[in-house]
UniProtKB/TrEMBL annotation:
Residues 10-61 form the F-box domain. It comes from the Eukaryota. InterPro entries: F-box_dom. This is F-box domain-containing protein.
Amino acid sequence: MILSPAKQPIFILDSLPKEIIYTIFDYFWAHDILYSFLDSSAYINSIILTYHNYHVNFKSILKRLFDLVCCSIRSNQITSLILSDDNETPCQSKIYFSLFPIEEFINLRAIRLSDIENDTLSHLWMIETIPKLKRLIVNKFSDHDYNQENSLSAISFFYLRNLTLPYCSYNQLRQILRSAPKLTSLNISLIISDCTGIDYFAEQHQEVPLIINNLTISIHTFTRTISRLLFERFLSRMPYLQQLELNVISGGSSNLLEGNQWELFIQKYLPLLFAFNFKFKIINIDRNNYHTENILTQFRSSFWLNRNPAWYVTYDINDFILYTIPRFAPHTIKHSLLSISPHSTTLPAAQYFTYYNQINELELDANEKSSYQYTNVQRLILSITKIDENILDLSKVEFLCVKSISWSLKKLLRIIKTSMIRLYHLKIDFSFSLLELSDSDSLAQIRILDLSEFIYSCKKEDYDLSTVFPYVERLTIRITSLLQMFYLIDRLMHLSSGSFHITNDSDNTKELSTESDLHKWFTEKTKRLRKNNSFTYRLDSQSDFWIHLWMSSEIERPKKVLNMNVPSGRLMELRKKNIPCLSSRCCLLL
């Protein structure tokens, strides 16, 4: 706030033209815009209402923020959308498309789907009604048995420029290359189960060269041989390729490792290529016939090294893997392992920091001294009871997993509060008693808590979990009864996502798995869900019994704003009908 000449407070953003505020909004997710700026002034509210370039990211979103976006933003204001049906946000896509049908997203240019349920995938053909859609990314299917080929065969790829699929058969690949003439970027994991598939992959007949300039292909086959010659036959029809990434696990042929031959092929058929990253793992082969230096020598020519950036490679003799760095340098490492050797890479010793800078997850499993420092570690795993702060910066750690049962929890909490100022995700990977924390201050910074090995008890003599971790928003925990789950839901006021692993309560879980009115069952057992029944859940009993809940916070419930962009009749219809989710084991509850 600033003061006007009349000494009246003025919100500083009210003095800016709306075009500048539009530009500011372009750098934020939709829920960040609403959470930060909504109701700050009437002027800003009017801009929020008229802004038409919202980027909506519902991946791991809190339920109250999801509700806020649904109540505040119309579908025609959205240009990019990320949806996820994972265990943190079960049935999300079903809820959202029930409120906003796909065909209403007339300005959508990009959509990303992760862990999406089958019912949503079955409606993907409707994206052809979205005239501006240029990017489709499917990161992961929730059901690996789902026949994706049927859904994909119904999609029109004609206008797509960018496509990512988690699994793709050679038939699907052939369809994509034939029906997507404007495609410039393709990222697929190719399924090849027989020799016919290999032949189809290599012999994709095209009347004209493909205009693809960015290609990423992953092929994992343990029974078939993928050779460099197959890739050459496939890639020779892509003269405009600028960025290429290959990730191959294959048996038999080692000619993928022949740098001299790759050099000749690229110079002849891929003249525009400026980025080439690969990871080749060869299995079922006599490794004694292949020597590290003989392989690396082929990647030390000026073709590989005299470019900016250079194409450096590393050879892992233990696992028979050749990969480029920094792209495929490991991001996870155990401190006890020797990280890099001058005999296994073309990377100059003066640039070894490039290798270590890629590591963002470190497991301290030995008290060995180190001559190097990990500067970008954000995830720390403790398998020992000593932390050498000379090899990493604890202030950058955001995730901490404690495996050693010898740790004093009080000491651990003190270290977190004093040194790990950015830590928000804590996993304690052993069983303990909360009584050990009875004299400790609360950890207000923890938002994600994983106690999957801890057996919770809500007896009076035990210590209240909500006292130690009062602001937890996501919880994974093992419990011995459904009553404990109800207790935690009511006590953890900020909880939005809960994954409860239930053991030793077979009678109640059997009743739960067969009861028809699950909405009534939940609202009767918990005060919180009875008061605010905006929640979804998924039951998983394939191996152990899990309940995954996604619910609005007890602290704040979004209200209807800006004339409510979802028709009130549609919301009331959903509430009255209790529309079920696609699976009998997953239910939408509004």
